[in-house]
Protein: aspartate transaminase
Organism: Kingdonia uniflora
Amino acid sequence: MASTMISLASASPSSSQPIRDNSKPILPKLKIGGFSVAHKPKSCSRITMAVAVDVSRFEHVKMAPPDPILGVSEAFRADTDEMKLNLGVGAYRTEELQPYVLQVVKKAENLMLERGDNKEYLPIEGLAAFNKVTAELLFGADNPVIKEGRVATVQGLSGTGSLRLAGALIERYFSGAKVLISSPTWGNHKNIFNDSNVPWGEYRYYDPKTVGLDFDGMISDLKVAADGSFILLHGCAHNPTGIDPTPEQWEKIADVIQEKNHIPFFDVAYQGFASGSLDEDASSVRMFVARGMEVLVAQSYSKNLGLYSERIGAMNVVCSSPDAATRVKSQLKRIARPMYSNPPIHGARIVANVVGDPVLFNEWKEEMELMAGRIKTVRQKLFDSLSTKDKSGKDWSFILKQIGMFSFTGLNKAQSDNMTDKWHVYMTKDGRISLAGLNLAKCEYLADAIIDSFHNIS
Ligand code: PGU
């Protein structure tokens, strides 16, 4: 804490308020009621008291609330119960509930060591080899938009940083345009657009009655939105609900977006994690692009390559002409430069090495299928355990219909609190559990916790 001298001057009425004046000479101090008060001789016409108080210049800074997702991991770490289970953050764990570094990642890193790759600054737009393969992975290598040079791709600080770049681009060039996000969505979307000063609204997505997609609600909300809005869509494995539109529904969504001149803005954080197939999980994005639409796509390698803290992802803007793509890219670089100058190289090289090498690429696909497969196995086991143990007749089959890392249990906040307080199961308060943090051994325990919370807490 800093000690601040406050001078109290009483000579003129206009200076009767306490003033901060660091230029005054330090005066002899008297102790009054715990404060040190500086004393000045009587002959002086101005009476000045300098009060030294222990006061921080950050006194007005309020405590921020814990993050609804990453804060759950902090609480988990502090819990000493041996049955504790962290189903909060969407991070893949092994059957032993340990973090997993993919074998292909280790191989790519060894390659980097063998080659003696340096650590020079990357260009503002990132590693060229990464930008090339990431766009190819997303759109398909032989997609005309790539061949025609119509995609502006810049490396971003994973999915979040890439979304934030797009937020800044929208704020600068589409002043007043709204971003419409699904209700519910990944919590950080709202923070990203708030901090980008981009207005946002919501479209209906989840129907608690059917525990499924509120397709009609979604379509009518897209129809009434102002023309030319940005529509944020989860490319696959919708977070938190695990409910994706069917291919037919995607087509209808694209119809409305085209009719309304909206701009589709995809967040692809789980390519390969929903179905186990990279191509299948990119099919929604590719369908919009095939219609000739201009599309924004944020990509993340946190989950599918397990590169969480390497912060590697990309922002892609598909434009109707190569010229527009060049200009958009130049502006994305301009936004990135004062924010973080240029992105980190390590994760970019890993992705470039894995995706750019046919042998490693195939090994990656196998490992991804393994990860996606383990999640599907615990999903099935959780459903079986719930169905066997719960005698109430409740239909738990929605768990099997959801895809990706998460299950949206339908538990409310009080029930979710019970999961944590009584059962030491850490999860987000919207009722989402990450099945990637669950193993077969703990499915029965989790089922007991869910049944107790669902039936005994209102
Ligand atoms: N978009 C969606 C839909 C996500 O679920 C996530 C991660 C991201 C983007 C951003 O991930 P990056 O690591 O920045 O690439 N959501 C996880 C991870 C924890 C978090 O909230 O950042 C989750 O548990 O929801």
